[in-house]
Amino acid sequence: MRNPPLHRYATRPGFYFTEDGGADVVVRSETADQVWLSVIESLDDPTAFYQDAIRLFPVPNVPFVDQIREFPVCMRIIEDQYVRETLFRMHGPNYGLWYVHIPKAWSGMRYGFRVDGAWDPRRGVRFNPYKLLLDPYAKGIDGKMELSPAAFSYECEVKDNRVMGSAFGNMSTVDSLGHMPLSVAIDDRDKTKHDADPDHPHIPWSKTVIYELHVKGFTAQAPWLPEELRGTYAGLAHPTTVAYLQGLGVTSIELLPIQAKQPEVFLQERERPNYWGYNTLGYFAPEPSYATKSAQERGAEAVRNEVIDMVRALHEAGFEVIMDVVYNHSCEGGVEGPTVCWRGLDAISTYRRQKNNIGRLEDTTGCGNTFDFTNTHVVTFAIDSLRYWAKRIGIDGFRFDLGVSLARLNGEFTQHHPFLYALRSDLLLGNLKLTMEPWDLGNLGWRTGQFSVPFAEWNDRFRDTTRQFWLTDVESGGRVGRIGMQEMATRLCGSADLFATDPGRGAASSINFVACHDGFTLTDLTRYANKHNEANGENNNDGSNVNNSVNFGTEGETDDVTIVARRERAAMNMLGTLLLSLGTPMMLAGDEFGNSQDGNNNAYCQDSPISYLKWDWLYQPKKSWHMHRLETVSKLVALRKSLDLYHQEGFFTRLTQLGLLKPSSRIQWFLPNGTTPMERDWFDLGQRSFAMQLLDASETDILIVINGVPEDKQFRLPSDNEWTPAWCSAESTGHMPGRGMKVADLQLEGQPTVWTYSVPENSEIHTLVERMQDGADGATARQLSDALDADMRAIAHAEAAAKAEREQARQAKQAAAATHAMSGEDDDAFSAGANIAAYRAHARNTQRTPQQQMQSQPPASSDPSQTAPDATGAATDAEPDMNVWTFPAFSISLMKQLG
Predict the structure, then answer these.
(1) What is the pLDDT of residues 353-384, one digit of tens each?
(2) Which family does it belong to (predicted)?
(3) Model's pTM, two decimal places?
(4) Does this chain's domain 14-185 share its CATH topology with 667-752+883-897?
(5) Beta strands of 402-530 (E only): which ranges?
(6) Catalytic residue at 437?
(7) Does residue 722 carry a catalytic annotation?
(8) Which of 637, 671, 790, 865 would staple 809 via disulfide (CB 3.0–4.6 Å)?
(9) Is-contact 419 381, C-beta < 8 A?
(10) Letter string b/e over residues 350-364, b meaning 16 or more CB atoms within 10 A of that residue's CB
């Protein structure tokens, strides 16, 4: 067959349709002896290559891989699979590239490569022409790997679902065709197909609120979707789903990996999936299992179109779409792993190798292999893939898994790595949101804050500080803990100690989070002191053992009033810290309504209800705590977006100018007595109550008040402003900051939901809640409604009785104070009286129903019968100072300037 000159991109790997109805195919293999393009057709269809191909027939004792060397184009029939394979001998290598032009090509064509060369595993060379390999640049993938000897380049067998054999043994002669996935060609030459796309939102970092979700898990159990759309790209693009996200108020949707994936061998041996998707099979192809069944049946192009439509729908609704991507390793694992693509094409150039044992792979990822980003062609491959997703699919940004592995030169991390410069300097990618996970498992792998401009980074220090301050320190009493005012204030202000590294790099570079896909959900942080990963099948040995989580007295769910209230207060404290801190907040999907994974902190292999978001709370005919939390989070996000103070790129505590640090005039700090902290206060681990004032010359000043001790506390607020409470974490249990010496009580029952009065009645989310509530079983709904109404009446009665008792206690205390002043009695009497009042309140609470308990306040946190000291430390019932406010125990509050 004649081989005409290549038509396009002769220096770039890929599959390129040409004007003559054929295609140019280019693949990289720097050390191979010969490469073939393999095209797979069904025997039901006539071949497109009848005039060009020589038909091969089986010859005794002559392997087909020897036969294919004789002809430029040959064809063989594999009857047991009912397919025809046509093999085109490619030309090369030319600077490491192999080329061929085929006379006919079509969208949906299935193909792969066979590669021949040396077999020397101890030197890292593993060429095997019996293995059909994916195109690294394939835009579609069809099929999946079977756990069989055909998947491995070395001789092995599979016994009892376990792979048995030596990776350094003989070469396998089992043909992998039919046992491995195939590449699928997609014709995307139409330059106008994206002309109708909406403009990308291009939300500034300073206004960004990220929402991390799993495409399947978010809607797998969504009651508003028809069955065929649940767990799909189309389900995420559904108007009701989009309306929910808009109601929440986030700006940027960060998707767990949606590039084609494959489970690790050890998971396949245990017949478990890789649910999260951090084991990439194809870097240009979307994961087909997240598409609707109809799209999967129509093929790879329909799957890709469904992804494009999802991105378009989110863009039209005003959201950015950010992809989590995994370029640090491939799905092939260590040398014992399968040969799917890169190992068979050019293992030496693709993967990092141990310096003293070239036959073994360097592994800084914990996944068996690490891509060699010192190789220019590996860098080029990653950039090409990212540009494809940004340009063709419309993605607005990328989060790089184990980013440190992408920036190692000669094994050591450097912020000056060529790959990082390639991202920065690219005209398309350099203008997108680029986020690094700033660690890996290699030497000195923890590098938070060291990636430089323009990269943002996940801030694990923020995560740990917030958890420790509001969970483990509170569990140990809340008097003295591991986290003091200095550390907490630094995280609230954007972590300048980590991110003030370059001129122009600001607080927005800090991706603040408390929970993410990897670890406990926010609710489980307050329910479980220990991980519960038994369902993963690894004897609970997987997942982190250091979570800074607590259970507040009982492991798992409970109806205990005090525990439930403390948990909800702790959750709201963490969410409040997240959304009121400078930096870029990231929330885990489901945390806004209390989603739980039953204590599993490593649900990577749980394609099951353990991982799916649980929407059953939508069926409740009355307002539940789930809805209350959802409303509170939505309110917090709206408050953050409404305040210009948060729309700043720089640091408030200190700015970087040519390496010099200077204080900011935009922030002030106060102790409860209204004074400015001294240096000793900053490092006093017992100083857990303070206020942070953010100043804005043209807008509204705000005050963030932290009360990290177990009793209500008075604060003397700055007198230059009148203040009003905008939000408080204690709202979850019916309390707000109060002017004077008492916290203010809220009436939680009987309130309409946010969605029924702040969202237009014609919106999808409004009708969603009503439809779900009305759709509950009639009898059950009536029973629930009657029970809840009875509970509300009981709560009202109990609150009236409690109010009367508190008034009696206050009068008794006044009388006792007068007696004490005259007689000089010991102050312990007052402590005893307060403890008795607290005990009585606790006794009343323990007799309440679970519905009543859900809305109760823990007695130790805010017993109003205990008079709080004023700013000078003396007990008083005098007319309150207008600048003195009392803040609930263990709470974070946002105060706004009035007028």
Answers:
(1) 999 999 999 999 999 999 999 999 999 999 99
(2) Belongs to the glycosyl hydrolase 13 family.
(3) 0.87
(4) yes
(5) 408-409, 412-413, 433-436, 456-459, 510-512
(6) yes
(7) no
(8) 865
(9) no
(10) bbbbeeeeebebbbb
